[in-house]
């Protein structure tokens, strides 16, 4: 592991590694298979499901950025979550997950638990009594998502890892919302970090990908074995694209954050905006923990429309600089209605239990000029306010 700063690692990863032509940027190895030099001699790479130089360059970079011993780059973030469950969790094992986790994570854990693959319990991880009760059940794995989606709740990772360790539970953190630039869960005590690299790490909304990073060498080897066994690894072309996106991760995160600060200030004085959910707000219950464990507050924010659903519909329709779409973390700004989009797999009761209201909107603040973003919000709020 190098002693370089994160931005340097992200920019320089694989640079000047080509020994054949001295290409500064590492080439893309689009090959499914590799030749053996002679019978009985197994080469470093034999088949791209098990190993590919382009994918490995990305995996090594992400492991280094997160401070892990190794990583497996998967075909999507969900595959990384499934890989961890397949590799480590058996029918008698219990997973403790947050009740407001990513909708796809909820669906995956819930569906596989219903099939008898493992047991799962969804709890409010910001409630110490609920966490203590869950730990008493001797879980095998605690799944953490902080900040959570879409309400940006914050879990104290260091504290949770310390208590989890006493019961022998492993801790995995989905770090998609902040990226290693703003939060490094392994340094806080986590055993695994997962990303949907689809989001900030690739950052350009043109690749679906994921990664599972292990703290220890032992887990890294076990996970790599399972990734090959179940066929969870990502395509070389996607890894090449993601490596390209990764190089600008640090400056992008700074700009995403700066733009979101300006948008928050605007939303706070907008009468059609109800509750705002963002850890930078001093009244946010996770504000102090976020200050302690994060290097920034991130650029995802949610808010409730104070008016009715008719106003919400007009507001969303009139926006020009925010595309109505799922996903996040790209250069372009997006707006999402979690209740009918990302979280529709959750029943109304499960949504209510997670505090997810139908009036909630989630923004992924992009890299457009913030003055244009604010002007766009303003004109859409004005049109919405004309609706009775
Ligand atoms: C998108 C997302 C996932 C799932 O990743 P995919 O790449 O879409 O499979 C998991 N967790 C979080 C927090 C996400 O935003």
Characterise this structure.
Keywords: Lyase, Pyridoxal phosphate. The modification N6-(pyridoxal phosphate)lysine is found at residue 199. InterPro entries: Cys/Met-Metab_PyrdxlP-dep_enz (IPR000277), Cys_met_metab_PP (IPR054542), O_succ_thio_ly (IPR011821), PyrdxlP-dep_Trfase (IPR015424), PyrdxlP-dep_Trfase_major (IPR015421), PyrdxlP-dep_Trfase_small (IPR015422). One of its GO terms (molecular function) is cystathionine gamma-synthase activity. This is O-succinylhomoserine (Thiol)-lyase. This protein is α/β, with parallel strands linked by helices and 388 residues long. The protein has two domains: 6-246, Type I PLP-dependent aspartate aminotransferase-like (Major domain) (Aspartate Aminotransferase, domain 2), CATH 3.40.640; 250-385, Alpha-Beta Complex (Aspartate Aminotransferase, domain 1), CATH 3.90.1150. Helix content is 39%, strand content 14%. It has helices spanning 6-12, 53-66, 77-88, 103-114, 128-135, 157-167, 179-182, 217-230, 236-246, 249-268, 287-293, 309-318, 348-353, 370-385; strands at residues 70-74, 94-98, 119-123, 141-145, 170-174, 192-196, 210-214, 273-277, 300-305, 323-324, 334-336, 360-364. The protein has a seven-stranded mixed β-sheet with strand order 1-7-6-5-4-2-3, sandwiched between helices. α2 (53-66) packs across α9 (236-246), α3 crosses α8 (217-230) and α12 (309-318) packs antiparallel against α14. It starts with 5 loop residues before the first helix and ends with a helix. The model has no long low-confidence stretch (mean pLDDT 96). Pyridoxal-5'-phosphate is lined by residues 76-78, 102, 104-105, 145, 149, 174, 176-177, 196, 198-199, 208, 210.
């Amino acid at each position: 592991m190098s002693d370089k700063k994160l931005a340097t690692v992200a920019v320089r990863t694989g640079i000047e590694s080509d020994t054949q032509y001295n290409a500064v940027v590492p080439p893309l190895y689009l090959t499914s298979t590799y030749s053996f030099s002679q019978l009985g001699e197994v080469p470093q790479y034999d088949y791209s499901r098990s190993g590919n130089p382009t994918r490995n360059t990305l995996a090594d970079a992400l492991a280094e950025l997160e401070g892990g011993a190794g990583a497996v780059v998967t075909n999507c973030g969900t595959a990384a979550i499934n890989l961890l469950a397949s590799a480590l969790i058996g029918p008698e094992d219990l997973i403790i997950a947050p009740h407001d986790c990513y909708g796809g994570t909820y669906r995956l854990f819930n569906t596989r638990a219903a099939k008898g693959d493992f047991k799962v319990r969804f709890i409010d991880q910001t409630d110490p009594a609920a966490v203590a009760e869950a730990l008493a059940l001797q879980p095998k794995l605690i799944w953490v998502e902080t900040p959570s989606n879409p309400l940006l709740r914050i879990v104290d990772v260091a504290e949770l890892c310390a208590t989890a360790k006493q019961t022998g539970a492993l801790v995995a953190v989905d770090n998609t919302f902040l990226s290693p630039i703003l939060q490094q869960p392994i340094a806080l005590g986590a055993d695994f970090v997962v990303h949907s690299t689809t989001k900030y790490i690739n950052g350009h909304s043109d690749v679906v990908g994921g990664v599972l990073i292990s703290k220890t060498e032992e887990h890294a080897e076990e996970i790599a074995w399972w990734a090959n066994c179940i066929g969870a690894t990502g395509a070389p072309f996607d890894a090449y694209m993601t490596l390209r996106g990764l190089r600008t991760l640090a400056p992008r995160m700074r700009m995403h954050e700066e733009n979101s600060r300006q948008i928050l200030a605007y939303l706070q004085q907008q009468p059609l905006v109800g509750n705002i959910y963002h850890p930078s707000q001093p009244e946010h219950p996770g504000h102090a923990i976020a200050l302690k464990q994060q290097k920034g507050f991130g650029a995802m924010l949610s808010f409730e429309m104070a008016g009715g659903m008719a106003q919400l519909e007009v507001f969303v329709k009139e926006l020009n600089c925010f595309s109505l779409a799922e996903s996040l973390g790209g250069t372009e700004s997006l707006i999402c209605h979690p209740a009918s989009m990302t979280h529709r797999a959750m029943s109304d009761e499960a949504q209510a239990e997670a505090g997810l209201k139908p009036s909630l909107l989630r923004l992924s603040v992009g890299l457009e000029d913030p003055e244009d973003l604010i002007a766009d919000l303003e004109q859409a709020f004005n049109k919405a306010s004309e609706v009775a």
